[in-house]
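Deliverable D4.2, example record:
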Amino acid sequence: MNFLNKTRQLVNTPISGEQVYLFAFSYYFILSFLQTTTYIAYISENAIQKLSMFAIALVVAKIFVYDAKNVKVFFIYLIASFFLVVVWRTTHDVKFFSLSIFVLGAKNVNFRKVIYLYFLIGLTFLIFVIGSSLLGIIKNLVYFRGTTNITRQSLGIIYPTDFAAHVLFLVLAYLYLRFEKLNFWDYLLVLISAIVLIAVSDARLSAYALILAIPIFYFGNRANHGNFVSTIIASFYWTVPIIAAYTMAFLTIFYNSSNSIMLKVNHLLSDRLKFGSKAYDRYGVSIFGQHVQEHGWGGLNGQTLADKSLVDKYFFIDSSFMRLLIIYGLLMTLIVVLVMTIISWRSIQTSSYALASVLVLVTLSAVVEQHLLELSYNPFLIALLANTTLPLVKAERRQNLEKLHG
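Output generated by the structure prediction step:
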């Protein structure tokens, strides 16, 4: 009887909007993560995308059943959804549509729970994929940098830099969850992660981003605890998305290989300016976006395409900011940069600095990598409408903050 009563109680327990969202997020994240691995040899990308639509449908249901409390809000969500469908059909890219639905559906969802699930699932699956590649169950794609003998292992992910991006964003999730208690050992873990990326994948840009995470989170954490100097420094974190997006667009659009300074910057960014400028000259910038045909080196056939005889066929826009501008259009570029700025600004205004610190690193990654709009890597834009309130500060710390802000 006791078992029957517990069963009835479980069945009669109402399902909350947050529970629907967290289940949909977990389901979608698992599928999208697998899509970045060489397990796509067994499960086609097309099949994964179709299965992912169930998660999108759940979030849409959550939006209109739990969140749209009145007619006005209902129509706002309806118009936003229609606009996202238009962008999806125009660009032929479903990833931005999916991410945007999860951003819209995050209302009244505890953001910390989202990041906890992201970290737990992501770390588990990354270890699983690495193990699968080392055991020979799936391919471990290995590349060589230029004419050198430097090997770049992907360890079951579709490309070395994509493997590095998974590590980078998982570390950011870890630092966000640990933000209140960050110490020397956490920063040492970050440094070790950077060294491993260099040794295994020669993913220098992601490794440098991890190294930069140490001072950025150090100042953010000290500002969180009321340190005056650190608060001054961290208070400018919100400007980073705006400055970085504008600078990358400017350098790319006006890139000139005959300019020695630009040539050096392009070399430091591993030809990001060169290919971004090529994309801009070929496609230009539209208001609502356009379809762009790319030929990258990631995926199961990446090693073949990376052969020297096929190097001229390579064409890929690595920078997320340039992808936004050329593929998704000027309007969506402004909206995404505004979203990043709002999340960072709000974090600073509440004197937590956790998300502001995260967004600095997300921005630096977006300058050189294409993962800003991919939920399989970056879950932090969900913070726009989610509940990001952290535990209240201690009384003495609150007094320090009040004195600082007058």
